[in-house]
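Hi, here's the filled form for the chain we discussed.

Project: internal
Contact: R.S.
Residues: 440
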Amino acid sequence: MKALCRLDHLGIEWMGDPPATWPAHPVKRHFDVLLGRMLQNEPASPEDRSVPYMKALHVKWGRVDTDDLPEMWASPRDLRQYGIQSGDLLVCEGGEAGRCGIVGSPPPDCIIQNSLHRVRAMDTASVRFLKYVLHAVDAAGWFDVLCNRATIAHFTREKLADLRIPVPTLDEQRTIVHVLDRETARIDALIDKKRRQIELLHEKRAALISHAVTKGLDSNAPMKDSDIDWLGEVPKHWQVLQLRRVVDRFIDYRGRTPSKTSAGVPLVTAGAVKDGVIDHSLAPEYMAEEDYTDWMSRGLPEVGDVVITTEAPLAEVAQVQDPRVAFAQRIILFKVNRTRMLPSFLRYYYLSGSGKSELLSRASGSTATGIRSDRLRMSLVLVPPLEEQRRIAAHLDRLVVRLTLPVMHIESSIETLREYRMTLISAAVTGKMDVRQEVA
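And the returned structure, exactly as it came back:
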């Protein structure tokens, strides 16, 4: 018995020593853990029927989506063994291993696929407490250690069952859950409010860009009907031209899949083009130096060239800032005729609602929607006089900076709130913060 007590109070790998009154036990001592069943696409017996099932995709941190579930075939025995009910904790076996959520109201006869574990508590434990513990395990980076996320992560049933966790009394667990439910709800509400502020700023930016590139800066300028439904009236002295009239070359980098390395020339994929800029941090990939010249033989980029994504994410636009980059498939680069159009004005035009609508109207495809370069050539653009383009682009540059700064401040405050939320959870479930006074 003494040896068992010493084992119960040994330190926990991901958090260190728990409080003296909290034993450290493996999950399997207090929870029943079941891995879901393999996907069955056809009935195996006359008793089988098609039922809804959940997979890792449906589990978010803290909650489970139960809308529009796929279906698989299952037997009555499968329904009994793998069925889920309100209050179950579902934990991801793969993907973002360890991500977990509580089931709310599942549809009847719903089961889980083998990308999920179903966790149910025994008499002395709370799955809601375990949910917060797994949040803390993730914050500590321990899932990376257990599951080797650098390759294909698998949080097996054995790893989950053997994971050592702090185990306060059931009353203490309930108290911790009560406090964390209340405080995280407050934090989440504040984060949602700040996200809405960012959405409003983005909407304001989009509206101001659209007005500038379709109506101009002079509110007294004579207008004319463009004869295009989505454009309406435009300044009388502006032209409506096909894109091929203002772009000298369309360079499409389709072909073989580019080779990728851990270092070399930055490789810009479609996922790195967002909100008008090329953000390499969104998709940090590289091309080998020895492959760069051959891959880019169709045309090297120059500062200011415009790029557009031709498949998902569709119709994202940006300008080249650093010419020492390689472009992957699903991107077309424009060599703009700068005696007719400023690349910066063209970029803003395609950031506007009108420009993006025109791009999307050129998309086609029965499976994956995309924009072919031949259809892109025929898309329509507004072309003000060059000097007016310059004034509009400069005006929008100042405007974007003015609206981007508050967005950055709000995003920073959201990140601070997220960090505080995680710190609060970790402190509560590891006993570093006594929440009993909070309840009192």
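Let me know if anything looks off before we file it.
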